[in-house]
Amino acid sequence: MKAFFQRLEAAHLNGLGVALGVAVVHLGVDAVFGDTAGLAAVGGAVCASLTDVPNPPQRVLPRVLPAAFAAGLVTLGVGLAHGSLPLTLALVAVVAFLSLMTLAWGLRAGPLSFSPVLALVFAMAWDRTAGAASPVEHALWVAVGGFLYAGWARGAAVLLRHRLRELALVQALRATERRMRSRAQRIALAVGAEEARIRASIADDVALADALQAARDQVFAARRSPRSRKQTDLVLGLIEVRDLLLASRLDTELLGQDFPGRQWRAALADTLRHLADALAALADTLASGAPLPEVSAEAWRAQLAARLADVSAPAGDSRGHLVSALQSRLGHMIDDVCAMVARQARTDDPPSPWTPERLAPFLSPEGWPLAALRPHLTLQSSVMRHALRSAMALTLAYALGAALPWAAHPFWLLISVAVVLRGNLEQTLSRRNDRIAGTVLGCLFVMLLSHVSWVPLLSLCFVAAVGTAHAYVNRRYRVAATAATLMALLQPLMLDPSSDPAIVERIADTFIGAGLAWLFSFVLPSWERSAVPRLGAQLRGALARHAGNMLQWRPSAEAQLAQRVSRQQAYTALAGLAAAAQRTRVEPESVRLPEVDIEAALSHGYRLMALLGAVQQLTQRRSDRLDEARAQAALPLARAACTDVLGGAPMTGTAPADTPDGDAGAWPEHLGQHDLTPWLLRRLRLCRHEAREFVAALERLP
Fold it and tell me: How far apart are alpha carbons 673 and 324 in whole angstroms?
């Protein structure tokens, strides 16, 4: 049993907890207050459970309680409007609009935005599946079920908090490992001109950013203890490795395509793969208690040095200095990975400067401030347009469902539109296809279960479907859609095993609803090009702040904290633009963002981040090998040049000192050199160049 639970990921564990919580609420209320109250309570519990995602305990109730309250309120509205089609249509429009406007609070409001719509569907289905109950009584039991589930969710979060933190770290380690392997592959291959095209790396970068933020939210919010401090050090180490990994893209293309260049790249790539193996083994340690990996920084450094020294390069090849610099840079990553493993092996608790107050700025925003709605009270807002679009689509769907010959379940058409219609065309198309496939699969399962007359088994399948749908809704929606179909069609079978599960109607409503959602995705559309000015301004501001923080000589402790905060903000802004680049590829060609320009903007943005990280490594890890006077003179000039350009100062041309490197000999000497100031000056020169190129690429976007 222990081995089984160790294999569960956070989403699976969360889904299992949701299924158990819904079952406990159902059985408890049913046993004390009867079948009618139990059925109503389970609906409220399911609606509240949508917002119960892996979170630290202190974040659970502020997310789950609003969903429970909204479920009760919506249920009351449906009960009062029952029997009047005009009132019901008006209620659908209002609920849909207000629900989707909650997306003004960001991605954390995604589950909350759907909870009232699901409550709407459950309440509409009530008169066909439940006994007699007044609208007020029905709404009260729905709210009770939601609030009881909120208590369960809080208790489960407390019980599972240590495991959820471990699993968040495991996900961050595995995401870093995947990114390291993909970087090793790109280094080993002849990347050349394709290095500027980052399309293949966007998904890995976004996934890594999401995994690291999830780990921050779980670990940094924990109470300070020896275990949490050790976990904090691991997250901080992964963040540093991510920076070094990004910097590893610099200069490798200058090694060339000849035989020595390929050998050098192969040696560097193999070392990265060894580090990835160590991270994978460390993830296994946290996930299942496997032994810590055996690592040795000295052995890895010696192996890398031997591999690089064995390369047969022409005498006096200037690339030897570049190889030496790349070897030194990779050595930092070796040190950091070994330090992470060594920290996990320690049994003592060394003092840490990372107090909860210093960690707080790195956590995701929380709460529901009304001020967040103000910027979206305009038709130019993508949130407002999606809310209006959804309100029109869901209202039409219910009206159409009521007019169809099989008008027994008009809310099925409504729910099909609600789950398929997303804020952008890419997600809508993906949901459309997965919804149809999942519904067909779910109906096949229901056809088999329709021959089962034992209600406890049907109830068990229903609870399992609740947990499965919750676990996979954001991972593999086709699985979630299959489970949702089971949930919808098993409810009448649980009440009357001999009833008709209405499979044909369910499939027809799904096809019609998916088609309606696709059509309405072109009503008040929010094409990605409309978001580019906002995303571009956010990214320019984030990069300007980060450049201002990073291009400093020996920053104070507070300045180093500001560097970490601005780095996180810059990565978040880059991920936002990268996500827009992914979504625009399925949009109509007439409104699609030009791939060349958006990829150029992302490429220069990531290169600027890599260069800023490389400067930080020089000034903090190699400051004893820099000429302090020259460094202190050059850093403010580069900082002013970068922040001015990123801040909107006009570009009058490219200075000769800011031109990019040539194919050979463009790097300073490194072998046998103590003074690395020329490398710092080169990095600063390239920072200015990349800042200018980034702004130029951004300005070419429509």
Answer: 10
Q: What is the pLDDT of residue 698?
A: 92
Question: How far is the C-alpha of 613 from the C-alpha of 333, rounded, in Å?
Answer: 13
Give which of 22, 106, 118, 21 is closest to 71, Cα–Cα: 118
Tokens, residue 204: 């890995």
Tokens of 524: 């008040």
Closest by alpha carbon to 573, among 295, 279, 206, 320?
Answer: 206
What interhelical angle do 528-550 and 557-583 show, nearest 10?
160
Report how far residue 105's alpha carbon sits from residue 665's, in angstroms, rounded to the nearest whole number: 51
Query: Which residue's entry shows tokens 């920290």?
Result: 343
Among 54, 45, 40, which Cα is nearest to 115's? 45
User: Can you give the pTM of this predicted structure?
Assistant: 0.87
643 and 547 Cβ atoms separated by less than 8 Å? yes
Place of tokens 């080169």: 682
The pLDDT value given to residue 173: 96
- Cβ burial of 671 (10 Å; 0-12, 13-18, 19+) is exposed
Share of the chain above pLDDT 70, in %: 93
Within 8 A by CB and 6+ apart from 537, the residues are none
| Mean pLDDT, range 408-420, rounded to an integer | 86
pLDDT score of 569 more than 80: yes
- Residue of 145, 75, 128 whose CA lies nearest to 493: 128
| DSSP-derived 3-state class of residue 546 | helix
What confidence score (pLDDT) does residue 407 get? 63
Residue with tokens 């052995």: 299
The vertex-172 CA angle with 167 and 178, nearest 5°, equals 125
Which SS3 state, helix, strand or coil, does residue 14 take?
Answer: helix
As given in the structure block, the two tokens for residue 207 are 């996934």
Q: What is the mean pLDDT of residues 384-406?
A: 91
Decide if 694 contacts 604 (C-beta within 8 A). yes
What DSSP character marks residue 649? P
Distance separating alpha carbons of residues 78 and 87, to the nearest angstrom: 9
- Cα dist. 23→174, 262, 455, 655 in Å? 33, 60, 14, 69
Confidence category of residue 654, pLDDT binned at 50, 70, 90: very low
Instruction: Output the DSSP codes for 312-377.
Output: ---TT-THHHHHHHHHHHHHHHHHHHHHHHHHHH--S----S--HHHHGGGSPP-S--GGGGGGGS
Output the six-digit token pair for 255. 């090694």
Tell me whether residue 155 is exposed, middle or buried, using C-beta atoms within 10 angstroms of its C-beta: 0 to 12, 13 to 18, 19 or more: middle
Q: End-to-end alpha-carbon separation of the chain, Å?
A: 56
Pairwise CA distance, residues 646 & 538, whole Å: 11
Which three-class secondary structure state does DSSP give residue 500?
coil
Query: Can you tell me the distance from the alpha carbon of 386 to that of 114, in angstroms, rounded to the nearest whole number?
Result: 13
Task: Give the pair of three-digit tokens for residue 294.
Answer: 């055996």
| Phi, psi at 633, each rounded to 5° | -80, -35
